[in-house]
Amino acid sequence: MFDKILIANRGEIALRIIRACKELGVRTLAVYSEVDVDSLHVQLADEAICIGSAASTESYLKIDRIISAAEVGDVDAIHPGYGFLAENAHFAEICENCNIKFIGPSSTAIRSMGDKAKAREAARKAGVPIVPGSEGLVDNEQEALRVAKKLGYPVMIKAVAGGGGRGMRAAHNDVSLVKGFYTAKTEAERAFNNPAIYMEKLIEDPHHIEFQILGDQHGNIVHLGERECSVQRRHQKITEECPSPFITPSLRKQMGKAAIRLASAVKYSNAGTIEFLVDGKGAFYFLEMNTRIQVEHPVTEEVYNVDLVKLQIQIASGSKLPFSQGDLVPKGAAIECRINAEDPAANFMPSPGRVDLFYMPGGRGVRVDSHVYSGYTIPPTYDSMIGKLITFGHDRREALDRMARALDECVVKGIKTTIPLLKAVLRDPDFRRGQYNLDFLGRLLGIKKEQAEE
Predict the structure, then answer these.
(1) Which residues make Cβ contacts (< 8 Å) with residue 101, sequence separation at least 6?
(2) Choosing from 227, 292, 338, 402, which is the catalytic residue?
(3) For a Cys-Cys bond, which of 7, 28, 97, 192 suits 45, CB 3.0-4.6 Å?
(4) Average pLDDT in the 387-395 region?
């Protein structure tokens, strides 16, 4: 086991990793930007080093400063969390070259699955269904129009290096295709320094289902079931649940086998997530792979009774998986609500600032993952998520009833949050019945499909 781990992240995921390390008896080194000096992860880590100013490009994305901090702190490994450098193959490669263990997959696996066009090809070769799309990159609008004519509208324009909904645009005709083509390329260039795009047929009224996988360094790979992630705004998830109320045991088995097949094809190790689109008839298509821990990992932890972050660390240290596929049986149900510092009544305008009072619920079956506390100031520099509320029950109804109760107990003063929206989601009859897909939130908010996709 490692002696000391550097956490190359901030916020709730940094705190989550610290907790796992403490339970494993591993010391922690936090890195932080100047604006994060009062963050909980800085206060609770064993050591902390400032690596730059507030802008992530001058701190959490500065590879040389993180490696310098690792060398000064004499760490054995680096955990990247999610976001920032978590899926940066170059960063993983530098860690490997510096003899610092990167707690995640190999740089080769990140590189092969991080490029969405290459990932689609890997899925095709592994016999995993893929959404019909362009054969490689689409370089100009004339080619985009030809591909759209071949696939038939609607289509989706996607950045090969995309993530979080950036560099993605839906098109329902030639006019929206040309506009979306240039918008997606520009957005991808700004966000990922890579304007390359490809196109796919847009699957209408789909479910967004993802499978959690784990692989060790000895060739063993398992899946830990699915998460239903179909409540989204602008491709950003709002709620997630495990298991999905839509997926049958038979479909779970088929999709799980497909996820393992793809992970095995790229010799994957550590935690990862394979995302699928599933239409109303149960046909599923590979969407992408996230080569990191996911924001929504707690719902899987509750239903499968595992600690995914501790397992990440143990796998990276050379341990074999402590279970086989047959040992992994889901029990109960869990749901997660993401709490963001945004005002839903003002078109989700960010609401940074001082938190005068922050009280989160408790009680049986309730979990809160957050780095926020009363008196903390939320900076405007980073992602707006300030916490995750997770409830668990012996069945879905109990988990939902607990979540409704827990949301009523939340008290956040001084800033606006998405808690009122989350309450509306939980009250919706279709959501309560588990009858929803990716069009759900647009309908709930009264937004036309085209507007919801922009």
Answers:
(1) 2, 76, 77, 78, 95, 316, 317
(2) 292
(3) 28
(4) 98
